[in-house]
Amino acid sequence: MEFQRAQEIVASPAEYEVSYNGVSVWIDKLHDDGKTATVHLRRSLEERSEVAITELKEEHQVH
């Protein structure tokens, strides 16, 4: 995923399915470096990870 698209998803009122290594995640925060983001698994609010934005994949918009 590109940084600009990640920004659009984070700012959007719509819900998008995003995955990291095939696992569904929420984007919590985009970092100022424009390369990384903090994400957490959709089923676990406690477990957060910093990942490369390029490794995030937009699956689809949730209806």
TrEMBL record:
Induction or repression: Expressed only in the forespore compartment of sporulating cells.
UniProtKB keywords: Sporulation
Subcellular location: Spore core
Claim: Cell inner membrane is one of the keywords in the record: no
GO cellular component terms, semicolon-separated: endospore-forming forespore
Pfam families per the UniProt record, alphabetical: SspH (PF08141)
Biological processes, Gene Ontology terms: asexual sporulation; sporulation resulting in formation of a cellular spore
HAMAP family: SspH (MF_00667)
Family: Belongs to the SspH family.
Protein known as: Small, acid-soluble spore protein H
Organism: Lysinibacillus composti
Encoding gene (name): sspH
